[in-house]
Amino acid sequence: MASGEPGWSRVPSPVRRGWSLLKSEAAGEVQTPVSGDVDGLAVGDRVWMRGAKAGELLERFDALHLVRSGELVDTVPTYRGEGRNWG
Q1: Positive or negative, the Cα torsion across 85, 51, 66, 45?
Q2: Are strands 34-35 and 20-21 parallel, antiparallel or unpaired?
Q3: Mean pLDDT in the chain?
Q4: Span 54-61, mean pLDDT?
C-alpha cells in the first residue's frame, strides 16, 4: 500500500489486462484474490502486480528493464543497484 490517505488509487493492481482486485479483499501479503478472465489460473499460481509506488519496488531489485512495445530498450540501475540505501 502506498503511504497517504487510504483509497483504491493506492493499492497494487494486477498487471494482466482484464484482471482486477476484489473490492471486498484488496491486496494482501499472502492472498490476493483477483477477478476477471482467470481461466487457467490455479490456486498458488504467481500473479504479477503493478506496485502503487515505485520506491517499494526499487528497494528489492538492482536494475530495471525498460520495455517499449515488447522490446527491451535499456537496463538501468536502481538506487539499490548503485549501492545506496535510505532504510
Answers
A1: positive
A2: antiparallel
A3: 81
A4: 75
Is 33 in contact with 47 (CB distance < 8 Å)?
A: no
For residues 70 and 57, what is the distance between their CA atoms, to the nearest angstrom? 21
Sole residue written with cell 502506498: 2
The residue behind cell 538492482 is 62
Cα 46 versus chain centre, distance: 12
Length of the chain: 87
Q: Are strands 63-68 and 20-21 parallel, antiparallel or unpaired?
A: unpaired
Residues 6+ apart with CB under 8 A from 59: 80, 87
2-33 pLDDT, tens digit each: 566 667 777 888 888 888 888 787 777 677 78
> Which residue type sits at 12?
P
Q: What is the dihedral of CA 28, 33, 37, 41, to 10 degrees?
A: 90
